[in-house]
Amino acid sequence: MPEPVVTEPVVEPQQGEPADKPLGPNGEKALESERAARKVADKAVTDLTARLEAIATANLSDLEKAQREATDARATLAEITQQNTRNSVALAKGVPADLVEFLTGDNEEEIGKKADLLMTRLNAPKNPKPDPSQGASGGASGASTPATQFAEFIRNASAR
Q1: Does 94 fall in a domain?
Q2: Which residues, 6+ apart, have CB-to-CB distance to 5 below 8 Å?
Q3: Residue 103 is part of which domain span?
Q4: Is the model's pTM score more than 0.70?
Q5: Considering the domain boundaries, does residue 13 fall inside one?
Q6: What is the pLDDT of residues 124-159, one digit of tens each?
């Protein structure tokens, strides 16, 4: 931001003081050169201030880019950490690899509870397994299988 140009106050002569004397040709040359130098200096200050603002804006953009990249990196890290926690809990609890995606939670304890519930549901008996020691046995008691019944039917049908 350009600094304001400071002008020198005009001093009015007090009563009893003599008025300013004329400068003469050399004094006026010096005054003109001083004013020209002041204009050049003011222009240089304005130009340098604009350049400084441009540099600050460019640096701010780099800073904003760095902050955005840091935010993205934090999000990626959080996702990888959660995935790692989910995988380690699944491994410890014996969850099958194709079911790990169903484990949800924000921390290890919550994921562990979900893994326990999932394993309870997976290991629940679906139907009782048949016990071959019970019921009729397929011995020589004349019981036939569907294959033997079908073969007998075909024989009887072709014999007619």
Answers
A1: yes
A2: 42
A3: 25-122
A4: no
A5: no
A6: 777 777 777 777 665 555 567 888 888 888 988 887
